[in-house]
């Protein structure tokens, strides 16, 4: 009868609808916020994963004072998941308990260090390996790019083996020498003097904050990036993390450096990376014409295309 036909059609339609809903739900059902403790500080992140157990994952890190919900970071997370690639985005704590998804304020006393960030990345890396992932991609934007390759270079050979590829998105490439020059020209401050003094509070330009309060040992931990190994021997402070050019020269993993042609923040990165990429087969330079430092608008699609081409 007509009623039976209509009922059968309705039943069939509802089953298809529910199947689609279940597929969509199951794809994202395991995704969600994750937390780990580091002594008294709660670290937070977001684990995006499909219902199918993946053996590979991308760890994605924001840039200076940023967070995991910045447009570039969240777009990467969502786009990778759409392509069935798991990811972990994290918030560096900057010594703030359970730091929210917002920029770290300038009007605080900055006592956090770049070495703290290295420690936290390592904790998240160990967290991911305990989940059973066999292949890891590192993706870092801006200062997060320098953090990621610094982290990679300090891993044991065994732990390096899990990392398939590193993507550095508009990474910063400052050295101590370039910072000394910039502070002298822009602020008429000789930061070399900080190498000869005990730890004390400064009021100075720091990580994009004008005239902010920062402890001198924290300042040096971020900015004391060497130009060559002999430089480290000539200073009295502890050995600092290496600058981008030294990491790229020494690294053994496959590294893709994605540069934005209209970048006004990491202006010198292209000049530093180009000669290295020409003589090192494992370092590849990609320039996205027209993009700014954050790869906004349709330039994100160009960036994503490169990342997916490599991963797939």
Q: Treating each run of at least 4 consecutive H or I residues as one helix, how many helices?
A: 11
Low-confidence stretches: 18-28, 228-238
Helix content: 40-55%
Mean pLDDT across residues: 87
| Number of E-state strands | 11
Strand content: 15-25%
Radius of gyration: 22 Å
Distance between the termini: 52 Å
Shape: globular
**Major sheet: order of its strands?**
1-2-4-3-6-7-10-11
Secondary-structure element string: HEEEHEEHEHHEHEEHHHEHEH
> Main β-sheet, in a few words?
8 strands, mixed
Sequence-ordered SSE layout with sheet pairings:
Blueprint lengths: L1 H27 L3 E7 L2 E8 L7 E6 L9 H12 L3 E5 L18 E2 L3 H17 L4 E7 L1 H11 L3 H4 L2 E7 L6 H12 L13 E6 L2 E7 H8 L5 H5 L10 H7 L3 E7 L8 H11 L3 E6 L10 H13 L1
Describe what this molecule looks like in 3D.
- The protein is α/β, with parallel strands linked by helices and 312 residues long.
- It is 41% helix and 22% strand.
- It contains 11 helices and 11 strands.
- It has helices spanning 2-28, 71-82, 114-130, 143-153, 157-160, 176-187, 216-223, 229-233, 244-250, 269-279, 299-311, and strands at residues 32-38, 41-48, 56-61, 86-90, 109-110, 135-141, 163-169, 201-206, 209-215, 254-260, 283-288.
- An 8-stranded mixed β-sheet has the order 1-2-4-3-6-7-10-11, with helices on both faces. A 3-stranded mixed β-sheet has the order 5-9-8.
- Helix 3 packs across helix 4 (143-153) and helix 4 (143-153) packs parallel to helix 9 (244-250).
- The protein is globular.
- The model is unreliable at 18-28 and 228-238 (pLDDT under 50).
């Amino acid at each position: 009868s007509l009623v039976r036909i209509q009922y059968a059609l309705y039943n069939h339609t509802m089953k298809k609808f529910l199947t689609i809903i279940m597929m969509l739900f199951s794809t994202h059902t395991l995704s969600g916020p994750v937390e780990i403790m580091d002594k008294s500080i709660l670290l937070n992140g977001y684990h995006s994963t499909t219902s199918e157990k993946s053996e590979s994952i991308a760890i994605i890190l924001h840039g200076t004072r940023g967070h995991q919900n910045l447009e570039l970071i969240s777009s990467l997370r969502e786009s990778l998941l759409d392509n069935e690639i798991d990811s972990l985005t994290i918030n560096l704590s900057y010594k703030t308990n359970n730091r929210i998804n917002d920029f770290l304020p300038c009007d605080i006393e900055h006592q956090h260090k770049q070495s703290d960030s290295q420690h936290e990345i390592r904790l998240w890396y160990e967290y991911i390996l305990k989940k059973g992932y066999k292949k890891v991609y590192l993706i870092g934007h801006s200062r997060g790019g320098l953090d990621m390759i610094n982290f990679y270079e300090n891993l044991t050979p065994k732990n390096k083996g899990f990392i398939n590829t590193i993507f550095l998105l508009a990474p910063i490439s400052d050295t101590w020498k370039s910072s000394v020059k910039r502070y002298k020209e822009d602020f008429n401050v000789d930061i070399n003097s900080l190498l000869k003094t005990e730890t004390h509070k400064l009021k100075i330009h720091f990580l994009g904050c004008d005239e902010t309060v920062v402890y001198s040992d924290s300042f040096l931990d971020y900015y004391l990036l060497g130009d060559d190994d002999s430089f480290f021997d000539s200073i009295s402070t502890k050995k600092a993390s290496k600058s981008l050019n030294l990491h790229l020269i020494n690294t053994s993993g496959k590294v893709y450096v994605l540069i934005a042609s209209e970048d006004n923040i990491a202006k010198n990165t292209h000049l530093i990376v180009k000669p290295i990429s020409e003589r090192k087969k494992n370092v590849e330079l990609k320039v996205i014409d027209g993009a700014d430092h954050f790869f906004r608008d349709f330039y994100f699609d160009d960036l994503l295309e490169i990342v997916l081409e490599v991963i797939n």
